[in-house]
Amino acid sequence: MPMVARRLRDPDINPCLSESDASTRCMDENNYDREQCSTYFLKYKNCRKFWNSIMVQRRQNGVTPSMPTAAERDEILGAMGKMPY
What we know:
Layout: H1 3-8, H2 17-29, H3 38-60, H4 70-80
Helix pairs in contact: 2-3
């Protein structure tokens, strides 16, 4: 597997891995009809927006790494009580 593909499959790097997989699975199951998968695309888009805003905040505050690890993301989501996207 190429390095880029491995990085996209790494849960520590890609916070929206489950949303990405769900949208891909939907496309496969619905014969690549984008209209039927629009809710999955919207969830993925909202997920990316949310984690990008977290990444920007952390970068501004000087926190490294700018993207929280998978364990840190679980803690952040647990503290919120629900999925923000």
